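Batch job 17 of 40 flagged for manual review because the log was empty.
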Amino acid sequence: MLNEVRMNVLSRVFVCGPEQVDACDDRAVESPGPLFRRRLLLESLTVLAADAKSQVAWLAKHDVVTDEIALDFDHAFRMAEALVEEGRLGRGVLPDLREIDAVLSEMSGAGNADRWMRHALSVDEGWNQARRLARRVLVAELGEWQQPLPELSVIR
């Protein structure tokens, strides 16, 4: 029971922010509006910020490839400007989010295929840089970077 209560509180922190947890209701957590989009961004950053060992375990648990980490961030990053305009994300994190996007984009392409292997998560400087930036954004938004890794539903 305590785990369920803790997860509910953490979900509210992800969606509503630490200052608004008490005012956050279940409809906000379940709605695909700005609060849901905020949660998606923060969840993508949580996976990106995790240490390499945790990332590899998360990928294995959900049976997805390393690209999924970058793809989830890419989808969520596209909503960042709107989240800032809606007052759901601090404007100060945009430079770090843009830098994460640039780092991941720089790693793309056929010539960089080895950077997308699971072992690269622990040795590649691009992954380390993206991890540091993601942690900085999470600290700015949530007060700390270590968050439970999100569950992923894969439809095949």
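Reviewer: the log was empty due to a logging misconfiguration, but the result itself is present. Confidence is low (pLDDT under 50) at residues 1-15, 25-31. Unflagging and moving on to job 18.
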